[in-house]
């Protein structure tokens, strides 16, 4: 058998898993302060949830989905992102009755069949938030601020990040603009790659995202939506920027930022960080998707959110020297003098754990000397020495690993004595 994880996937070994738990814990605590509640949707959905939501002509839907038939012949797809599922769930459970709103956050794995490279995986992990039912520009600003503050909270300084914002317009102004870009692409057909030429018919705005340098040069001169926004979209965008200005959140307007999903309307944003990530430097992003609920057959319900990528965020943290708090593996090590007292040593360790102390003991038959080495390695501040002589007197020895001082305490009071010594 092939004992390696599939291409584009990786095991989250303890150091990385600890980082994931730290980020999700930080997200939980922080987004709770902003009023968000947790939601967990299935890892797979009916395929239409994504084809209809994200859009047939996007890279994700046309090239990257893990789609399969289950044993009953239903077409199912591993979720490539979180928003479509959250909106499907909100519709199914009527989470947003007319006139109300809800704030949700999620965390978990996503799946895209992409060409793996640094910061680009086939199974990757995202943390995201969504607000459904909120149309006002302050909601856009809140979501952007929450993303920015999250990165700061995990130790990525503002100076290492760039926040890009743009408005994608809405159904009033975007269709005409799309046609204009399609016309521009056709007028420059000879200077653009085959894929960009095809995009003129399918998804012209995606040509702004083409990685081909020649295309990027041509698209740099394309008409910009910023100059064609309808009045309500322009006013909405201006107010989002004012809210960000008032908080001193530094942003750059990037009129060519379109992002890879069809469902966006009005505000879109992305945070980029330098972490040797090359073109994978977007560590998180999102936007507004006011028409998505209707695409699923629901009532018009404005919505917006962001998703941040765990792998890239971790790389940006490493580049910034940000640390994941070290785990407390053992405050106390319970060492046994010989095998005759193994049962008592186990009982002492259990009693300490029950009393809320992080306690470790030997399960591999180490000598007393190597148990002490192990205690050192784990960073234990105290060692409880359990030996036949002490036990005969109803006691154990407590050794302070810093001062090397030893004291005898009653076996019955070991948890109390340890807690007093640990302070
Ligand atoms: P998106 O859902 O495409 O807007 O992506 C949001 C964030 O998820 C990105 O900024 C990345 O940090 C992360 N991300 C997206 N695709 C991948 C991938 N294939 N591998 C790792 N991270 C990804």
Q: Helix proportion of residues, in percent?
A: 25-40%
> Helix count?
15
Cofactors, ions and other ligands in the entry: adenosine monophosphate
Uncertain segments are: none
Q: Assess the beta-strand content as a share of residues.
A: 15-25%
Explain this structure.
- The protein contains 15 helices and 16 strands.
- It has 423 residues and is of the alpha+beta class.
- The chain folds into two domains: 252 residues, BirA Bifunctional Protein, domain 2; 91 residues, Rossmann fold, CATH 3.40.50.
- It has an eight-stranded mixed beta sheet, sandwiched between helices.
- Helix 5 packs parallel to helix 9.
- The longest helix has 20 residues.
- The radius of gyration is 28 Å and the shape is elongated.
- It starts with 13 loop residues before the first helix and ends with a helix.
- 39% of the residues are buried.
- The structure holds adenosine monophosphate.
- Adenosine monophosphate binds next to strand 6, strand 10, strand 11 and helix 11.
Q: Which keywords apply here?
A:
423 residues; alpha+beta; BirA Bifunctional Protein, domain 2; Rossmann fold; 2 domains; 8-stranded mixed β-sheet; 5-stranded mixed β-sheet; 15 helices; 38% helix; elongated; binds adenosine monophosphate
What's the helix and strand layout?
Layout: H1 14-33, E1 37-38, E2 44-46, H2 47-54, H3 59-64, E3 67-69, E4 75-78, H4 83-92, E5 102-111, E6 123-132, H5 137-153, E7 161-167, H6 174-187, H7 194-202, H8 213-219, H9 231-247, E8 252-253, E9 265-273, E10 282-288, H10 292-295, E11 303-309, H11 310-319, E12 332-336, H12 342-354, E13 359-361, H13 368-378, E14 382-386, H14 388-392, E15 395-400, E16 406-410, H15 414-422
Parallel strand pairs: 1-5, 7-8, 12-13, 12-14
Antiparallel strand pairs: 2-4, 3-4, 5-6, 6-11, 7-9, 9-10, 10-11, 14-15, 15-16
The structure holds adenosine monophosphate.
């Amino acid at each position: 058998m092939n004992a390696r994880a599939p291409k584009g996937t990786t095991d989250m070994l303890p150091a990385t898993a600890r980082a994931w738990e730290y980020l999700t814990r930080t997200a939980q605590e922080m987004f709770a302060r902003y009023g968000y509640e947790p939601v967990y949707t299935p890892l797979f959905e009916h395929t239409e949830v994504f084809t209809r939501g994200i859009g047939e002509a996007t890279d994700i839907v046309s090239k990257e989905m893990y789609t399969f038939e289950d044993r009953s012949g239903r077409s199912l797809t591993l979720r490539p992102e979180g928003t479509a599922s959250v909106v499907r769930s909100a519709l199914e459970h009527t989470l947003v009755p007319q006139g109300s709103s809800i704030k949700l956050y999620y965390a978990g794995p996503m799946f895209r069949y992409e060409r793996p490279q640094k910061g680009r995986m086939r199974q990757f992990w995202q943390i995201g938030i969504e607000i459904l039912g909120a149309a006002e520009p302050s909601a856009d600003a809140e979501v952007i601020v929450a993303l920015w503050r999250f990165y700061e909270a995990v130790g990525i300084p503002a100076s290492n990040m760039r926040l890009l914002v743009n408005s994608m317009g809405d159904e009033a102004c975007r269709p005409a603009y799309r046609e204009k870009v399609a016309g521009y692409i056709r007028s420059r057909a000879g200077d653009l790659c085959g894929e960009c030429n095809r995009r003129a018919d399918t998804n012209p705005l995606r040509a702004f995202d083409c990685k081909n340098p020649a295309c990027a040069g041509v698209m740099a001169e394309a008409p910009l939506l910023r100059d064609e926004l309808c009045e309500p979209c322009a006013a909405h965008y201006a107010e989002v920027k004012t809210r960000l200005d008032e908080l001193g959140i530094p942003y750059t307007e990037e009129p060519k930022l379109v992002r890879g999903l069809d469902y966006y309307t009005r505000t879109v944003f992305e945070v980029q960080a330098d972490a040797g990530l090359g073109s994978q430097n977007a560590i998180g992003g999102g936007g507004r998707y006011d028409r998505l609920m209707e695409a699923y057959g629901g009532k018009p319900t404005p919505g917006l959110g962001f998703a941040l990528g765990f792998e890239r965020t971790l790389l940006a943290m490493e580049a910034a020297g940000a640390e994941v708090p070290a785990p407390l593996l053992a405050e106390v090590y319970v060492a046994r003098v010989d095998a005759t007292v193994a049962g008592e040593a186990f009982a002492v360790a259990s009693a300490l754990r029950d009393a809320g102390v992080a306690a470790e003991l030997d399960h591999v038959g180490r000598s007393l000397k190597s148990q002490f080495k192990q205690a050192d390695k784990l960073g234990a501040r105290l060692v409880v020495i359990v030996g036949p002589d002490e036990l005969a007197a109803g006691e154990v020895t407590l050794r302070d690993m810093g001062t090397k001082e030893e004291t005898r305490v009653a076996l019955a009071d070991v948890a109390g004595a340890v807690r007093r010594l640990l302070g």
